[in-house]
Structures are given as structure tokens and as C-alpha cells.
Amino acid sequence: MSTDIMKNKQIIEEILEVFPDKAKKDRKRHYEVMEEDNKLDCSKCAIKSNIKSRPGVMTIRGCAYAGSKGVVWGPIKDMVHISHGPIGCGQYSWGTRRNYANGSLGVDNFTAMQVSSDFQETDIVFGGDKKLEVICREIKEMFPLAKGISIQSECPVGLIGDDIEAVAKKMSKELGIPIVPVRCEGFRGVSQSLGHHIANDAIRDFIMGRAELKECGPYDVNIIGDYNIGGDAWASRILLEEMGLRVIAQWSGDGTINEVMTAHKAKLNLIHCFRSMNYMCEVMEEEYGIPSLEYNFFGPTKTIESLRTIAAYFDETIKENCEKVIAKYKGEMDAVIAKYRPRLEGKKVMLLIGGLRARHTIGAYEDLGMEIVATGYEFAHKDDYLKTIPELKQATILMDDPGAYELEELAQKLDIDLMGAGVKEKYVYHKMGIPFRQMHSWDYSGPYHGFDGFKIFARDMDMAISSPVWKLLKAPDKVGVMA
Ligand code: CFM
């Protein structure tokens, strides 16, 4: 066994040592160290995932409401999404995901607004259904161009047994627009992942297939599971269109309810975030016979590979166009790599991101010569881990739902040069003197998808690592001053 593998196994042991025996045993099952390069070793599929977080361990996961309201439904821009329940959930999830959308705010685009039913004690005691009716009427009056409403349940709604389905049905009839009740109370499931599933099911039951396209064509595709974070879906769509494909729906970044209603007319579903939207692809395949294809638009290597896989599904014209698109951007991509690779070569990266990007962004880092020494997910399932293992090099640590303590220890023991995770983690790493990039919201940057996105990705990673600020500060623990 190579020394690196042994060293990393030892590091995990040491970190878990502080836990009581039972917790230690449990957390250990959420770690694997890769024994060979890029190999799917099925014994490694044993890594535990999608189960309850260990009580007492500070998980960085979110909840079902986050998965439904924040992720799947929130980006549908011409609907008003009600955060139904106490104000906190709406307030704290307001605008933080940076899912961009075109349109006039408050007129035909409501993504950057936060509408909450602001539950008070009386609503908990007497129920919030009456209030919900009033809110629906007010929305119709204030935003006449809103094409629909979704009711995103927060925990108390489920606990007190409100009948949001009945309200939705009644108000939909009264107001003449679709009103969708979504049972995404935060306590459901073990993470935001069940929220994705519940949100997908609500789309299936209330929206999918409810409208027809005027004209259909042989090159009609849907972009599924791109939420347009910092403009990601726009940077992706442009490549598909240059190739000659017609994108009839974007789910759900910068998407409209009509796109969701007519998406069943596509010839092919292109799915980027498998974790959050695979359910819809399955449903569309079963009900409408639409096949789906997974793709990865992070970094030129994966983008080129994906463009060719997509083109292979179509005729010679598209295949030829695909090569032209690749040739058009290749020079630009080579120049980006020539500029940044010498500055980033060999830098060690650790990632801990949601349910997709912990594997999808690896190629982009590797295009810049950077090395992934540890990666992991908050809420991935077994199928995600099976897809991740072949992307990893020998001795890389793979982890599931690690708590804040485990991550901080790992970062120090692996002596990483860059950490990629979320805003909850960010400032701790800055205090430790470790460069950090937010890999959920792209900090205040983006897009990172496609060729246009890679230019920004490379610049941002360089900016984080090469900033002169790291030479000016010493982490508080190194200078003996308590922060
Ligand atoms: Fe999909 Fe996402 Fe992700 Fe995700 Fe998320 Fe996100 Fe994510 Mo944050 S839908 S699984 S629930 S790619 S919000 S845009 S970055 S954890 S890795």
C-alpha cells in the first residue's frame, strides 16, 4: 500500500479519535481513501450516504424546504413562491443562491423577491389556511403578470396539519392560475435531497405536460438541472445553440412555468445536476419516451467531451457543428490554461459541496494542473458516489456529510492550498489562513459553466490562491492570539 494511502487513512483515524466509540465507528463508514487511480472499485461503494446526520456532529447540510423552495422551484421566474410559515426560513434563504433571471423584477420576474406568510403564534394555534387564501389574492392583485403561485411549506405547516392542498385547489379556481402546494417541510428526510424529490413530484403532478408547443423540431432539447447560478445556464445554452440545437426549456434557472409545461415535447433531456432533477428525467422517459443524457460543462476537457456526447445523439450536421464550436473556443481555452496553469500547478484542493459539484468540478481543477486531495458531498446518494470514484486519483479522500470539525482538521492535516465549500464554512478557513472559494454561489462571481465560465473559474481560483493577503496575515492560533 502506498505511503500516501496509509497516511490519509491514519489522518482520518486521528480526526475521529475525539469522538465516543459509537460515533467514531459511525462516522468512519462515511470515509474512503482511494486505493487506485480512477478505478471503480465496488468495495468502495460501501461508503455510507443519504442517512441521518450523527446527532451532536455539526452537519453542514440543509433541509427539504431549502431543496424545494431554494433549489428547484425558486428559480422559476414568473411564479411567486410563498415561503409558507415563520419568517426566518424565507429571510435566511433570500437571494443567497444567486440564480439569475432576465425580466423586470416584480413585474414578470419574482426570483429576487421573498414572499412569506410570516406565521405568528395565532397562526400556529388556529391554522394558517385563511391567511394563505388572503396572500394568494393579494399576490394576484399586486402581481397581475405572475403566471402561477407555489406554496412552499415550512416545518410548522406540516406539524399543525394545515390543508394547503385544499387552499391551493380553491384559490387556483378562484384566481385562474396554477397554484401548487408543495409539502417540503424542513423536517422531511435527512437533507435537502428529499426536498428536490418532493419538488420534482409536485412539478410532475401539477405542471408537467399542461401546455403544448406551437412548433416542434428535430433538435429540440431541454436543459435540466441548471439553476443559472451566476449565469451558468446562459453560458451553457449558448454552446448548445451554436451547435444547432434548440433549447425549448431551462429547468429551472431563468425558467418560466410555460417552459416547464411544454418541456415534454423535447427530443432529448440534457441533465446537468443529476442529483436534484433525475426524478423528472425518469418521469419524462416513462411518460413521454424522452431519453436523457448527463453532461458536465465544468472545464474545457469535460465540456468538449460532453459536447461530443451530446452531438453523437444527433445527425451529421450537428456533429459537424459541434466540431466547429470546439475549434472556435479551443484556442481561447488553451490561452487560459497557458496563463493560469503555471501559477496553479500542483496546488492541493479540498472540496465539500452539495450533491453534484464535488465530482463535476474535478476536471476543471485538473485542467489547471490542480490536484484534488479530498472531496465529498453533503447529501449525495450511492449513485453519485459510484460516479465519483472513477474521477479520483490514488489516495484521494472521499467523504460523506462531514461535520465542521472533521473538515477543519482535514484541511490542516492535508495542508491544502484551496478549500471549496459554502458560505457557512468560508470565514473559518480565512481565519485559518487558507484560501477559499464558495462553490455553491461562486462567491460574487460566475458563471463557471461552459467555455465562457472556465475563463472566470480559472481567474477566480488564481485570485484566491495568489492573493498577497495570505502573506500579510498569520492565523490566530499561529500567533498565540485568541480570535
Ligand atoms: Fe445540484 Fe446545484 Fe449541486 Fe444542488 Fe445545492 Fe447548488 Fe450544490 Mo448549493 S442543485 S446538487 S441542492 S448542482 S444549492 S446549484 S451548489 S448544494 S452541488
Concise overview:
Its cofactor is [7Fe-Mo-9S-C-homocitryl] cluster; [8Fe-7S] cluster. The chain has 22 helices and 14 strands. It is of the alpha/beta class and 483 residues long.
Rg: 23 Å
* Strand segment count: 14
Portion in helices: 40-55%
Total count of domains: 3
- Supply the CATH superfamily name of the largest domain: Nitrogenase molybdenum iron protein domain
The CATH class name of the largest domain reads Alpha Beta
User: What distance separates the N and C termini?
Assistant: 41 Å
CATH topology of the largest domain: Rossmann fold
Characteristics:
483 residues; alpha/beta; Rossmann fold; 6-stranded mixed sheet; 4-stranded parallel sheet; 22 helices; 14 strands; binds FE-MO-S cluster; iron-sulfur cluster binding; Nitrogenase protein alpha chain; ATP-binding; oxidoreductase; ATP binding
Would you write up a description of this structure?
The chain is of the alpha/beta class and 483 residues long. The chain has three domains: 147 residues, 3-Layer(aba) Sandwich (Rossmann fold), CATH 3.40.50; 144 residues, Nitrogenase molybdenum iron protein domain (Rossmann fold), CATH 3.40.50.1980; 113 residues, Nitrogenase molybdenum iron protein domain (Rossmann fold, 3-Layer(aba) Sandwich). The strands form three sheets. The chain has a six-stranded mixed β-sheet, with helices on both faces. A four-stranded parallel β-sheet has the order 3-2-4-5, sandwiched between helices. Helix 19 links the parallel strand 13 and strand 14. Helix 1 runs antiparallel to helix 18 and helix 3 crosses helix 9. The protein is globular, with a radius of gyration of 23 Å. The two termini are 41 Å apart. The site of FE-MO-S cluster has 15 residues, from helix 3 and helix 12.
